[in-house]
Design a protein that fits this description.
Number of domains: 1
Largest sheet: 3 strands, antiparallel
Strand content: 15-25%
Oligomer: single chain
Low-confidence stretches: none
Number of strands: 3
Distance between the termini: 46 Å
Structural class: alpha+beta
Mean pLDDT: 80
């Protein structure tokens, strides 16, 4: 972090903690500190406890690393989309 005065910024919101914790570990593997706010509020009754006012489960990073975190998350999303798209050989039944 380049500045000693920063605040945590939400880069993603979830209704369950699983995806948030996974992405937190991905960010940390890329040297980006991350925090899952409201991690333990999800679960069976998330729709009752996590109204719009609370904001759900939030994945947060320091304010000076938001852009870097978004690049990592977008890279994961792009990789997932590539993995889901069938290649020409598998469309022909050759793989």
């Amino acid at each position: 972090m380049t500045s000693s005065s920063y605040h945590w910024v939400t880069v993603a919101r979830f209704w369950s903690s699983g995806p948030a914790v996974f992405l937190k570990s991905l960010l940390e593997a890329n040297d980006i500190p991350a925090f899952v706010r409201n991690e333990y509020l999800g679960g069976l009754f998330a729709h009752l406890t996590l109204g719009k006012a609370e904001g759900g489960i939030e994945l947060q990073v320091p304010s000076d690393l938001v852009e870097q975190a978004q690049q990592v998350l977008e890279g994961l999303e792009a990789h997932a989309q590539e993995s889901e798209a069938p290649d020409e050989e598998s469309e022909k039944g050759l793989s």
